Amino acid sequence: MATPVIMPKQGQSVETCIITKWYKLPGDKVVTNDLLFSYETDKAAFELESPADGVLLDIFFDEGAEVPVLVNVAVIGQPGEATAPFMPGGQAESKPSKTAAEKVEKNPAASSVSTKDQPLQSDSRIRISPRAKKMAGEKGMNFSDLQGSGPNGRIVLSDIEVALSGKSTMSKPAAVSGAEFTEQPVSNVRRIIAKAMHSSLQNSAQLTHHMSADVRRLLEARKKIKAAIAAGNEKQDITLNDMVCWCVIRALGKFPEANAHFLGETIKTFNKVHLGIAVDTPRGLMVPAVKNADTLDLRQLSKELKSVADACRKGNIDPELIKSTAASFTVSNLGNYGVEMFTPVINLPQAGILGVCTIINRPADLGNNTFGFVPYIGLSLTYDHRAIDGGPATLFLKEIKEQIEKFEYK
């Protein structure tokens, strides 16, 4: 019996998802857990695996289509099995059938596209998505020379849009090497990031304070952890960033005004620390939250931070954990990139974010009239001045510094 492939519901607030890429095409054999397609919500990107063994009989939505959740997007079964009973009816633009007449019958929204509107050339051997073919037909465009950017060279909607805009010919004979530039559509995740960053800077009163902390205790702890792992006495590889986050959580306990959301008319101050951690992924920046981070010991915190970061990179993070409201405070670490100082942008409605910079050796008084070089880590606190005044913000940053400098690994 044929098995429908359903668009998952990722979180309570997600109503639609955008299909970004099909890894399998109709007629391909699939087995359970094969990747079928990738998709995006307004907050994150994911991949869907095959729920059954068989053949991908049909795909109902093209790449780029916005699909309501819990709707059939494809069907898997054995050759010859009927797919019509699984075809979604009217929720969104479904994949047209091979002939124009059938296309109009199954998709009334496409009734304006007649057979005469289609390109004059034969496209029986050209791999082109239904939505791309529809647009080409509406514009009277010959797509036989286009080089598709989809799976197996398939022409997709963005290829037609770019060609019509005149930004690039994208024709097969054209040489693309030596071109002055390339252009590509803005991804859904990038669009969301851009909107959030612009909104944050436009709708808050952000100010950044910079400070450095003696990091010798953290580096010594890191050496002990590496040695313990090598000896088999420690299983959790606790990083410098884990230790800094641990210190931030301790500081937030003493300065709860930084562990808050500014909501315009009210300030929500949290009794627990829900720590956000900025994660760089191939799809863009994500900020998952570790809930109740203040209840975790250092090893548990390290494990949870790694878990949410890995989930973001794999594309299977719970969307509820990457809402801006999921975290009460965020840490963004650019130290691995050698950044000495930067201005992190607040993830509204949070009241603050800590930027962690690289470690630099600086001259310092070692005592007894002895001077030497001491490793210092840069700390950049951006806070919303509507929620926190400069004095308390500075004291909070100083507390983070002190927590780092008196850190003890047990």
Give the biggest sheet: 6 strands, mixed
The CATH class of the largest domain is Alpha Beta
Query: CATH H level of the largest domain: which superfamily?
Result: Chloramphenicol acetyltransferase-like domain
What is the C-alpha radius of gyration, as a whole number of Å?
A: 27 Å
Proportion of strand residues = 15-25%
Which CATH-level-2 architecture of the largest domain?
Answer: 2-Layer Sandwich
SSE string, helix = H, strand = E?
EEEEEEEEHHHHEHHEEEEEEHEEEH
Q: What is the number of helical segments per DSSP (H or I, 4+ residues)?
A: 8
User: Looking at the chains present, what oligomeric state does this protein adopt?
Assistant: single chain
What fold name goes in the CATH topology slot of the largest domain? Chloramphenicol Acetyltransferase
Ends: how far apart?
58 Å
Overall number of domains: 2
How many strands appear in the DSSP assignment? 18
Question: Could you list the spans in which at least 5 consecutive residues all have pLDDT below 50?
Answer: 90-124, 167-176
> What's the rounded overall pLDDT mean?
83
Q: What topology, given as strand order, has the largest sheet?
A: 9-18-17-16-12-15
Shape: elongated
- The proportion of residues forming helix, as a percent range, comes to 25-40%
Structural class by SSE content: alpha+beta
